[in-house]
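Schema walk-through. Below, the input block comes first and the output block second. Nothing else is stored per chain. Lengths vary across the set, and this one has 276 residues.
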Amino acid sequence: MDLILRLFKRTTDTNSHNFWAFVFRKIAPSLLLLNFLYSSLFYSILSVPLPPFILFYPQLNQFTFPIMEIEQKPMKSRFRRICVFCGTSPGKNPSYQLAAIQLGKQLVERNIDLVYGGGSIGLMGLISQVVFDGGRHVLGVIPTTLMPTEITGETVGEVRAVSGMHQRKAEMARQADAFIALPGGYGTLEELLEVITWAQLGIHDKPVGLLNVDGYYNSLLSFMDNAVDEGFITPAARHIIVSAQTAQDLVCKLEEYVPKHCGVAPKQSWEMDQQC
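--- output ---
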């Protein structure tokens, strides 16, 4: 090792690219092997990734090397598709737009497809484009009458036109394994509260998440807590809504979600009623 360090020190005072190329070809395989073994050992203990092999040799920090990256395996998820409720407005706070992008990246990293309201503008347009560019399937469900106002330019992914708002929400819910609400207005709030109500009634047992970016939904969460205190929502039903401030934390919580409430009627009863 001392010999290697002396060789690297020598090269810092020379412009001999041939000499450097010779040395690098000789030691690179050994360094990569050492880095792999060292990283594997500490990753298994600390569960954190380590820097490249330059960590072993500080003298190399002033150089740039063509290091081969090891492709990471995609994360496994319990969900195939997640429905995201969001608006056609980007919002005034840039954090809302960033949250939509980060959520889209989380879906891509976990190999989760997107179901959403079908618009190509605002937060809808941001998250759908990120997921689509990441190679995942994007399904947009939109009423025919809203297509001229919520879709501009080329559509993203698959667009499924339906006859009205009720059909839109029903189709989105049927396609998804979980729900997430980004910051939004009346429409986003209405969609969120409806799937929470459906869960409370026992129509579905899918996780429902609230991405509380910069405390946007603090007042809504306070309302729910107050409703529990006043006896209008049971503590078990309050557990239906899962909230977090970042996309990564929220998706992790949804992956671990276990229902605590008992539906008013069994899920099978609702399914039979819909078939009648």
